[in-house]
Design goal:
Length: 151
């Protein structure tokens, strides 16, 4: 049915480092547009660099893998030509639960941080487990996948 909605257009579109559309067969890309939600997602790498999908991050300002510092670095870099990258909400991440590994090959089957605070405790943030499809919470430690959306 979704094929009928998109009429031959893929749900996901790959973007290069400048934000230009790439062919579906491209083997390297910087970001992915989700045509279903209008959200552009960061593409994680597996090269040991700053965007490596295996890195964990923390909200602790003294941690070298600090979430805020990472977001600032990606915005300074202007990944895919944009400088408004941010941590997604839990609901935005849930739109990727059945993500296509072809477009997100370096996503870990582990917990990902969201910008959504726990309704029970303002010091905790909600997490999403891509393997289990469960919600969790902690003080903001785990993998991250940045998002942006034109408003």
């Amino acid at each position: 049915m979704k094929n009928d909605i998109y009429q031959g257009r893929s749900r996901f579109i790959k973007l290069d480092t400048n934000g230009q559309t790439l062919p579906d067969e491209a083997t390297q890309w910087a970001a992915i547009i989700d045509n279903e939600t209008g959200i552009t997602w960061e593409n994680k790498t597996n090269d040991g660099g700053v965007q490596d999908g295996q890195h964990n991050y923390s909200r602790d300002e003294s941690d070298k893998n600090n979430i805020t510092a990472y977001i600032q670095a990606i915005n300074k870099k202007q990944l895919a030509g944009y400088k408004n990258w941010r941590l997604p909400t839990l609901e935005e991440m849930e739109s990727l639960i059945k993500l296509n590994k072809r477009y997100f090959p370096n996503i870990q089957n582990d917990w990902y941080c969201s910008s959504t605070k726990s309704p029970d405790d303002d010091e905790f943030y909600l997490l999403l487990g891509f393997k289990t499809e469960h919600r969790g919470y902690n003080r903001g430690y785990g993998h991250i996948l940045l998002a942006r959306k034109e408003e």
